[in-house]
Specification:
alpha/beta, TIM Barrel, binds flavin mononucleotide
Length: 347
C-alpha cells in the first residue's frame, strides 16, 4: 500500500475544469439523511476509527463510514467490537458498516448501530478475505442473492435509519450481473448502494471498471456511490458525470492526505499543504489516536501513517524508516518535531 500512495504523490494532480459549477459540492439525501456534499470517506478496516472519521469530516468529507464491524462480535458483546460502535459528535453524518451473513444477527447489529447514534448502517458485501467469506459474510453474499436479500430485509425491518449496501461486481469478473443484484437489493430495502466495480478475486488489482458503476446507477432509483481509483478533483468529476452516480467514495487517496476530501468537494487542484503543516496534522492525529487506542497500540497503528503522510515530501529515507521502527510514540513524536523544525527553515 505504501507504493500506491507514493505513486499518487509523485503524479501531478490535474486542475479540475473551472466552469463555475462544481457538481460535487451539492448535497444529496439518503432516506432522511442529508449529506452536505458528494464526497464519502471509504470504510477502511483497521484504519477507519472515530478519530480518522472525525478528521475526514473536518477536512470536508460529506459522509464518513466506519471500518467494518463484526455482527457476531456485537451479539456476543465483545468489548473491542462494541468500542467500534462509539460515535463522536463531530462526525455526523456518519455510517457504521457491519459484516455478517445471518439475517437475525445482522438485524440485531443494525439495532445496536442505531442505538449507538449512527445516521445509517451499511452492509459489507465486498470483503474478499477468505476468513470472512467462509462465514457467509462480505463478498460471499453476492453469490447467494436470496440470503443477501434476507439480510437487507431483516435489517430494514429492524431499524428506522437507512440501511445501505456496499458491494463489489461479483466474486469473479462476469459471474453475476451487479445491476440486477443492485435492483434486488433496492427492492429489499437498501436506501443507497455503493459499488466498487472489481470482483472479490481481483482484490485491489487492475482498475475499477466504472462502466459497471454506470449500469448499476441506471438500474436503481436510490443514490449510488462509486468507489475505486478516484484520487483527485478532476477524476472525481469525470467519474461522477460519466456514471451519473450520486457521489464518489475516497479510500486509498485519503491515506496520509485528508486534504483530498475538501479538494474534491470544492473542485481544487493539488491540495497538499507545506510539509510543516502536514507534520502538524500528523502530530494532532497521533495525539487523538492515543486517546482511542492507548499509547502502545497507537504506536503500532501510526507506523503506516508516517509513511503515508511523509513519502514523496522530501523527508530523508533513513528518517522515514526510523519513524516506522521507533519503539514508542514519544520517540516518534520527538523525531517529527525535529523534522518540522527543518521543514520550517526550508519553507
Ligand atoms: C486497507 C483497506 C481496508 C478496507 N476495508 C474495507 C472495509 O472495512 N469495508 C469495505 O466495504 N471496504 C473496505 N475496503 C475497500 C475500500 O472501501 C474501497 O472500496 C477500495 O479501497 C477502493 O477504493 P479506493 O481506490 O478509493 O481505495 C478497504 C480497502 C483497503 C485498502
Amino acid at each position: 500500500m505504501r507504493a500506491l500512495v507514493a505513486a499518487r504523490q509523485r503524479d501531478p494532480v490535474a486542475p479540475p475544469p473551472s466552469d463555475g459549477h462544481w457538481p460535487l459540492a451539492e448535497p444529496f439525501s439518503v432516506g432522511d439523511v442529508v449529506i452536505p456534499n458528494r464526497v464519502v470517506q471509504a470504510p477502511l478496516a483497521g484504519i477507519g476509527n472515530r478519530v480518522f472519521r472525525a478528521q475526514s469530516r473536518r477536512h470536508g468529507a460529506g459522509l464518513v463510514v466506519s471500518e467494518m464491524v463484526a455482527a457476531h462480535g456485537i451479539r456476543h458483546g465483545n468489548r473491542r467490537t462494541t468500542s467500534m460502535l462509539e460515535v463522536v459528535p463531530g462526525e455526523h453524518p456518519m455510517c457504521i458498516q457491519v459484516f455478517g451473513g445471518a439475517p437475525d444477527v445482522m438485524a440485531e447489529a443494525a439495532r445496536a448501530v442505531e442505538e449507538a447514534g449512527a445516521d445509517m448502517v451499511d452492509i459489507n458485501m465486498g470483503c474478499p478475505v477468505p476468513k470472512i467469506m467462509k462465514t457467509g459474510a462480505g463478498a460471499s453474499l453476492l453469490a447467494d442473492p436470496d440470503r443477501a436479500v434476507a439480510v437487507i430485509r431483516a435489517m430494514a425491518d429492524a431499524v428506522r435509519i437507512p440501511v445501505t449496501v456496499k458491494m463489489r461486481r461479483g466474486l469473479k469478473p462476469g459471474d453475476c450481473d451487479p445491476a440486477d443484484l443492485a435492483r434486488r437489493f433496492e427492492d429489499a430495502g437498501a436506501a443507497m448502494i455503493t459499488i466498487h466495480p472489481r470482483a472479490a478475486a481481483e482484490e485491489y488489482s487492475g482498475s475499477a471498471d466504472h462502466q459497471i458503476s454506470a449500469e448499476v446507477v441506471r438500474a436503481v432509483e436510490v443514490p449510488v456511490v462509486i468507489s475505486g481509483d478516484i484520487a483527485d478533483a478532476a477524476g472525481a468529476r469525470e467519474a461522477l458525470e460519466r456514471t451519473g452516480a450520486a457521489g464518489v467514495m475516497i479510500g486509498r487517496a485519503a491515506l496520509g492526505n485528508p486534504w483530498v476530501f475538501r479538494a474534491i468537494g470544492e473542485g481544487a487542484a493539488d491540495p497538499r499543504p507545506p510539509l510543516y503543516e502536514v507534520i502538524d496534522e500528523l502530530v494532532g492525529f497521533s495525539n487523538d489516536i492515543v486517546g482511542v487506542l492507548g499509547a502502545d497500540n497507537a504506536c503500532h497503528y501510526l507506523r503506516k501513517f508516517h509513511s503515508w503522510y511523509l513519502v514523496g515530501r522530501g523527508v530523508p529515507e533513513d528518517q522515514l524508516q526510523a519513524l516506522m521502527e521507533d519503539p514508542t510514540l514519544d520517540v516518534a513524536l520527538d523525531r517529527l518535531a525535529r523534522l518540522r523544525e527543518v521543514a520550517i527553515l526550508a519553507a
